[in-house]
Amino acid sequence: MEKMKAQAGIEFLIMAGIMLVLFAFCVMIYVMENDEAANWNDALEADSICFRVSSAINSFASLGASDTNSTYWFSLPPYVNYKSYSVRVAGNAMLVTVDYGTGAVGCRLQTKNIANSTGSNVFIMATNATMKNNGGALVVS
Question: How many domains is the chain built from?
Answer without folding.
Answer: 1
